[in-house]
TrEMBL record:
Location in or out of the cell: Cytoplasm
GO molecular function ontology, one term from the record: DNA binding
Alphabetized Pfam families for the sequence: Response_reg (PF00072), Trans_reg_C (PF00486)
InterPro entries xref list: CheY-like_superfamily, OmpR/PhoB-type_DNA-bd, Sig_transdc_resp-reg_C-effctor, Sig_transdc_resp-reg_receiver, WalR-like, WH-like_DNA-bd_sf
Domain of life: Bacteria
Transmembrane segments: none
Protein name, UniProt field: DNA-binding response regulator, OmpR family, contains REC and winged-helix (WHTH) domain
């Protein structure tokens, strides 16, 4: 893991050095930023394979940094927040974070989360990353070469738009997507105030991957915002 480089951005020095120490035990290279501006500067100077962001930082906060990074890269982003409100978690995930951990946290949870996020990607020889050819989350698996999908071990047939939506969800479990974001990813166009198009395809996808579409396990509705793909808390 010597070629894996991680950026940790948090204005609390003790937290930065704690995370750095434990991640370096796993043989990751770790850089520290104390505010959002420094985080972006470092990110543009080096190649990182994962970024850990605190929401509350000076200069630019974690949400702002996350928004900038998401326009440039698909690098996994883990968000740290001292706020234990659902709206804050949803905000971070909706702006592109892949997962969040609430302070105070167990350092072992952070390390486990980092390993799980990195497992979604494969490191190439030129120190860049790409998604693995097989994506798996809980009991859903998608082969990105053949685009075959298995749910609870059974192969299901999805239409093109359904595959695009599922791939997006599998790429970012727990992240909240607005209807506008789903529309742009699935249709490649700017969103028109037409909730029905997205809702119809979500309904079709649920029928194919959920055991009970009326009580979905995977595709959760976030009222007033959109949808997120989630499962039980013991995995990422």
């Amino acid at each position: 893991m010597e070629n894996i480089r991680i950026l940790v951005a948090d204005d609390e020095e003790e937290i930065c050095h704690l995370i750095k120490a434990y991640l370096e035990r796993e043989r990751y290279k770790v850089d520290i930023a104390r505010d959002g501006e420094e985080a972006l500067t470092l990110f543009h100077q080096h190649t990182y394979h994962l970024v850990i962001l605190d929401i509350m930082m000076p200069q630019k906060d974690g949400i702002e940094v996350c928004q900038v990074l998401r326009k440039e890269t698909n690098v996994p982003i883990l968000m740290l927040t001292a706020k234990d409100h659902e709206s804050d978690k949803i905000l971070g995930l909706s702006f592109g974070a892949d997962y969040y951990i609430t302070k105070p946290f167990s350092i072992y949870e952070v390390v486990a989360c980092v390993k799980a996020l990195l497992r979604r990607f494969i490191v190439l020889g030129n120190n860049t990353i790409k998604q693995r050819s097989v994506m798996k989350y809980k009991n859903i698996e998608m082969d990105l070469t053949t685009y075959k999908v298995r749910v609870f071990g059974k192969e299901v047939t999805l239409a093109a738009k359904e595959l695009k939506l599922l791939k997006l969800f599998l790429s970012h479990p727990e992240r909240v997507f607005t209807k506008a974001q789903l529309f742009k990813e699935g249709w490649g166009e700017e969103y028109i105030e037409d909730d029905n198009t997205v809702m119809v395809h979500i309904r079709k996808l649920r029928k194919k991957i959920e055991k009970d579409p009326s009580d979905p396990l995977f595709i959760q509705t976030v009222w007033g915002i959109g949808y997120r793909f989630q499962g039980e808390k013991d995995e990422i």
